[in-house]
Design a protein that fits this description.
Elements: E1 2-5, H1 11-25, H2 32-40, H3 44-53, E2 55-61, E3 64-73, E4 81-88
Antiparallel strand pairs: 1-2, 2-3, 3-4
Helix pairs in contact: 1-2, 1-3
């Protein structure tokens, strides 16, 4: 496994990881509408913009992206941070 900075060319695959994770892992806890709205708010274009506002990372198993996460200033704060966009493909969850 490798953790590295998100690159613009990762955007489509990362958005697919997020969508699959939401549909599989979160479907028992959230409505279909909520999941669809969340997927829409994590499109490839949104991820590219989010990466510009903080530090976004992907987790790769060889060449496959299997997870992602970001850290950014908490609503513009220079002294606090927030973790965002943390998703791991279902088959990789719970494995440390």
């Amino acid at each position: 496994m490798e953790i590295r900075l998100f690159k613009q060319e990762d955007a489509i695959e990362t958005a697919q990881v997020i969508a699959e994770t939401l549909r599989t892992s979160n479907s028992k806890d959230y409505s279909t509408k909520y999941i669809d709205d969340t997927i829409s708010s994590h499109s490839a274009d949104v991820l590219i913009e989010r990466a510009k506002a903080g530090h976004m990372y992907v987790v790769c198993d060889k060449t496959r992206i299997v997870g992602c996460g970001a850290i950014a200033g908490y609503w513009g704060s220079t002294t606090e941070s927030i973790l965002l966009t943390i998703f791991v493909l279902p088959e990789y969850q719970g494995k440390g």
